[in-house]
What does this fold into?
Amino acid sequence: MRTLRDIPEMRATLDDSHRRGQRIALVPTMGNLHDGHLALVAAARDRAEVVVATIFVNPMQFGPNEDLDAYPRTLADDQQKLEASGCDLLFTPTTATVYPRQLEAQTRVSVPGVSEGLCGGNRPGHFDGVATVVTMLFNLVQPDLAFFGQKDYQQLAVIRRLVEDLHFPIEIVGIPIVRAEDGLALSSRNGYLDDDQRARAPALYRTLRELADRLEAGAGRDDILAQGLARLAESGLDPDYLELRATDLGPVSETTDRAVLLAAVRLGSTRLIDNIPLTLPRQGDDDTRS
Ligand code: PAF
It folds into this structure.
């Protein structure tokens, strides 16, 4: 696996693959790789002749009081994992390469609608940062496919929309959440949890699972969400939101069948997110079970 830091070198390296019509898969990451990231690389390896991973801790997607400086940077370890997973090329540019101007003066990509509310409500500007850097990576690498985890459900929806709106000829592939044995969704931010917080964190998935099962069985939505918020708080998780949305993140209506239950919670200074897709019974089928 080659590791490249500069744009001209990276473009020149991929030129040959583009000319030969090889399928190129992109796996954008911020590093500190875990099995969730490696599942993206494995899926990319199955679908493409050239797998390009990127590691860039993108300052534009962090708010002023967020963990940009503390975000774990583990390049040597990440390189080994990527190489062992069959990645061909790692692009890991510096901030000055990606953003040659001050961040405030930089062109931005904004995806209205789908980036509002949920995490977008709690993290203003976050999805503009994600959309901008992902657009830039699409432009630099010009992949045929790009792989993202479903844990960041809203991020995936934002990226699907920007690909549609900006007419990128790129297939976006969402890969299911990889979980620890106790159900906690793998995330680089889990590393911030102390032992006591780590022991409490799986309550997020347990609660979502139980609520999703009850919703699928026909329980009343408003009651379930209210009970869920109380349950999360009782488990020592401070909820930012708990919401039921249609799979495109639009509101759930009487005719919605495919939905997703999403939550973000705070555990000390760490923010955890998770989600579970579910099938709602048709309204009127049986709603006596709340
Ligand atoms: O999901 C992430 O790791 C980041 O948001 C991404 C997509 C690499 C953009 O910086």
In short: Residues 188-281 form a domain with the Pantoate--beta-alanine Ligase; Chain: A,domain 2 fold (CATH 3.30.1300.10). The mean pLDDT is 96.
